[in-house]
Amino acid sequence: MTDDDHATPTEHVALADLEDRPHAQVFDGEPRTVRLALEAGEGVASHRHPDRRIVLHVLEGRLAVTLGDDEHVVERGELLQFDGRRSVAPEALEDSVAVIVLAPRVA
């Protein structure tokens, strides 16, 4: 048996081709990967992902990301990593696109 016998298929996606808004699932399976596209002033209501560790990478624009009582401004090219047990509410300070990776929490 070779390593290729257990490999997952390679997937290649262009974010610009994803149509769902504000969230578009990038790939099937784990880790869950989502493209978030928000217009200036648009946001996502506070929510949690309790079984996940999350990495948010802003590709375009600027987001204000509220985590519990803390607010982080994340600009183009910056990344934010946080525990999905914290409540999160992103809001676009300008038209923005981000990729979010929601990795399963390892016990």
TrEMBL record:
InterPro entries: Cupin_2, RmlC-like_jellyroll, RmlC_Cupin_sf
SUPFAM superfamilies xrefs: RmlC-like cupins (SSF51182)
A Pfam family of this chain: Cupin_2
Chain ranges of the Cupin type-2 domain: 37-94
Region (Disordered): 1-22
Protein name per the record: Cupin domain-containing protein
Annotated organism of origin: Natribaculum luteum
